[in-house]
Amino acid sequence: MTGEEAKRKLREQGITLKEWADARGYPYYLVSRVICGTIKGNFGLSHKVAVELGMKPESNEPLQTQ
Predict the structure, then answer these.
(1) Strand ranges, E, within 1-66
(2) pLDDT digits (tens, 9 = 90+) for 23-45
(3) Which of 24, 42, 57, 61 has the most crowded CB, counting CB atoms within 10 A?
(4) Is residue 60 domain-resident?
(5) Helix axes 17-24, 3-12, angle to 10 degrees
(6) pLDDT band at 17, cuts 50/70/90?
(7) Cα 39 from Cα 45, distance rounded (Å)
(8) In this structure, is residue 58 part of a structural domain?
(9) How many helices (H) and strands (E) would you count in the chain?
(10) 35 is in which domain, residue-wise?
(11) Is residue 19 in a domain?
(12) Does the residue 8 lie in any domain?
C-alpha cells in the first residue's frame, strides 16, 4: 500500500493522521513523513509505523549471519 492509499483509508474511516499517531503513541511528524515517503520506514520506529499503516509487510525472519 502506498502512502496515499494509507491516507485515503484513514480518511474513509474518519481518522486524521494526528489522531492515528496519538492513539498509538507515535510522534505525528514521524507518521507524516512515513506517509509522504520522506522517511522510507526501513528500520526502527519508522518501520513499525509503516507496518501498522499497511505500507510494509511485517518481517519476522531472523537475521542470518555466516
Answers:
(1) none
(2) 999 999 999 999 999 999 899 99
(3) 24
(4) no
(5) 90
(6) very high
(7) 11
(8) no
(9) 4, 0
(10) 3-53
(11) yes
(12) yes
